[in-house]
Structure formats: structure tokens, C-alpha cells
Amino acid sequence: MYREEVQLVSSTFAHSIVHAFETFVQYWEELCANIRDGSLSSRITDPSIRSAMSKIIHPDPVKADLIYNRCSNLSNWYRLIPALFPNAKYILGIMTGSMLPYLKKLRHYAGELPLMSADYGASEGWIGANVNPKLPPELATFAVLPDIGYFEFIPLNKSIEEQEQDDESDFLRIEPKPVGLTEVKVGEEYEIIVTNFAGLYRYRLGDVVKVTGFHNSTPELQFICRRNLLLTVNIDKNTEKDLQLSVEAAQRLLADEKLELVDFTSHADLVSEPGHYVIFWEINGEASEEVLNECCNCLDQSFVDAGYVSSRKVKAIGPLELRVLKRGTFQKILDHYVSMGAAVSQFKTPRCVGAKNSQVLQILCSNVDRKCFSTAFG
Ligand code: AMP
């Protein structure tokens, strides 16, 4: 209704922006009909939504036809956002970390509109500002706001020996000592500890960041991943970042076939003997058996962690399993989290579903369409 007035398109996380436009793509004809008639479809029953919309919607056949024609002329919904909102200047949201996989789709909808990666923060407090907003999200860094809290950094690259030399008296300490804001080194990775004015004391945020430089005297951080270990069966250790790299490699094989990966997650299956990794994919389109097998082998080979590769070779970890999900499965997972009280705008797809998360595992396992096993290690 206010399409000319929209100056920017934004949500906390990039996932919600993509989700909103995917929903639009599903229901656009109905929305045009609603604008034409000036009334909401009867299936919208929520009284607060009906009442809010009744204040802004009125019959506007000219606008409805214009939107209808614009959408009909798009090729595979490329440039949907500027077609709908001609005066939008940019797209804003968190696009780093676990949001990176949604960038391709977001760029498709955005066309030439710039993507601006929003700041780095958490419910526990704001951490850093994106002071170079014109850089593409893949290169975004965040300058730590030095007086918004007290920040410490656990070095992640230090070897145990270096650590022992640092602190020989403390045999029980298995992790390096945290360093202060001014002691971090460029090129090193750290986990952040926050102490804030609200009273959180030395809280481990669980995020891994890399120092890329300094903005004046405050460090600039690149977000790497969540620290918690994702996939492990044996002596292997693969993080969110490792999973992302492996999925990106295999996704290229899908793209060659003009197929699109909608979303993904993983699970370490420890029930079967030997245990193995399970990767769940939701794909837009029909992948052939051959392509799926190639993707499955590629996923397996792209986990380069020495513990994984050696365990695979001696068959202490079984062949990686790729399970293709029915369309709409990740929507069901989102609905599940929302029904438990999560906000859609805060939603981050869990990249690894553990056995304890039985409800989500159940949704995944009961929506498998096809599956295949890797033959990569013979
Ligand atoms: P929440 O506690 O739900 O507010 O989420 C905070 C978490 O979201 C952080 O600890 C990060 O893991 C993630 N996050 C927040 N901002 C960013 C960002 N700019 N880039 C990547 N991840 C982020």
C-alpha cells in the first residue's frame, strides 16, 4: 500500500528478509487481489491483524494492476525488491555468520540494491559496529564499542605448551588466559567474554571472532562462528564454519544443475554402528540420483579435519548420509520454534540438531524424501 514510501528493507537477521519475500512469492496474487478489493482474504482471521490492516487498506485497482504486472514481468523473481519498492535504497540486516547461506537468495531478490550488514550484538549486549557498511557482507568487520561493556578475549590459537609456559602454577587450567581489549593480535581468533552494566559478569558469549585490524585503537572483529562443537562422532571435530564450507562446496554441484539449496542442517548419528554424519538438505527442484550422489561424496570429502579424514579411512566413522527433505520442512521447523515462543525475527536455523532436540529431529526424520550414502572413502 505504501510501496513508494519504503526507503529501506530491514530485519534483524537476513533469514527473515528472505523468508518474507519467499512468502510473498507464494501469495502475491492473493495480495494483489486484496489490494484491488480493499479487503483482506477471509482466511486471515486474527482480529488484531484485520483491525490494523483495515486502517490502511482501501480498494486500489490501479496499484494492484501495477504490482501484478511488475511481478509477472520478473524473471524467476530476480530484482523483486526494487520492483516492489522503487525508492528503497538498501537492504539492512545481520548477514554474517550463520546468515551467510541466505546471501545468494537475498542478492537475487535485491538485484543491484546494496546489502548492508548490520552490527554485531547479542541479547547480552551490543558488541561492535559495522563502520564500513559499504563493504560486501562477506568482508564485514565490527569495531568493538569499547565503553559499552568490559570485553575480554580467550585466545583460541595458542598451543597448550605456550599456555603451560604462561601459567605453570595452574595445572588445572586447560584454556588460555583471556586477554584485554588492547592486547589482542591481528590475525588471531578469540572467544569473547562480556561483563556489562546490567550485571552480567564475565559471560562467555560462545562466539569465535578474528581480529582483522584496529579502528582507531579499538579492535575490528570478523565474526567466524559459534564456538560450540557441532559434529563429532569419534576424534573428529567440525564446527559450524566447517559444515558451512562443506555445504558450499557441494552446493556448487547443485547450482550447475540450476537447483537451489533452500536450507540445511546436520546431525551426528551415534545410534548406527559406526556413527556417521547426516546432512539434511531442502532443495528447490528435483535433483537426479547422480547429482545427489556427487553432492554426498563432495560433502564427505570437504570435511578436511584430520580426525574426520583418518576416522573415515579406517571406517571408525561410517559414510556420510545425505537426506533430502520434502519442501516446506524448514518452514515446519520455524513454526515449531515460533509455537514454543521464539520470535520469527530472531530465528536462526539450528545447524546441528542433537539427539536431545528430539522434536526437531522428529520433524526432520519424518520429512525425508530421499537419501544416499557417500562412496568417497571406498
Ligand atoms: P541472541 O542471543 O539471540 O540475541 O543472538 C546473539 C547471537 O547472534 C550472537 O552471539 C551471535 O552468535 C549472533 N550474531 C549477532 N550479531 C551477529 C553478526 N553481526 N554476525 C554474525 N552473528 C551474529
Automatic annotation (TrEMBL):
Q: One GO molecular function term?
A: acid-amino acid ligase activity
What keywords would UniProt list here?
Answer: Ligase
GH3 middle domain: residues covered? 143-226
Q: In what residue span(s) does the GH3 C-terminal domain sit?
A: 241-354
Q: Which Pfam families match?
A: GH3, GH3_C, GH3_M
One GO cellular component term noted in the UniProt record for this chain: cytoplasm
Which InterPro entries does the entry link to? Answer: GH3 (IPR004993), GH3_C (IPR055378), GH3_M (IPR055377)
Q: Which domain of life is it from?
A: Eukaryota
Q: Which family does it belong to?
A: Belongs to the IAA-amido conjugating enzyme family.
Spell out the protein name for this chain. GH3 family
